[in-house]
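Hi Y.,

Following your request, here is the sequence exactly as I used it, all 79 residues.
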Amino acid sequence: MRIALALSYIKGLRVDDWVFQQVREVTNKVYGNHLADPPIQGIWADTNEWLWQDFLQNFEAAFVDTALVEQAYADLLNL
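Below is the corresponding structure, written out as tokens. Let me know if you'd prefer a different format.
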């Protein structure tokens, strides 16, 4: 699964909680969680493209390029 591979490269004390949360979310979306109250049904196959797109949206929302505006300004000045 692509998500598991991507998450295996994300390491560090500041991101471990986010990685664990993503693993839990993906697991619930694929396999469900019958111990939850109320139980969660799995809704996607682990090969479903929507699962990957959802992960990418979560990743982009969590990890923003903080220097993007400054880089754009510097690029404009260099024109």
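The radius of gyration is 17 Å.

Thanks again,
Q.
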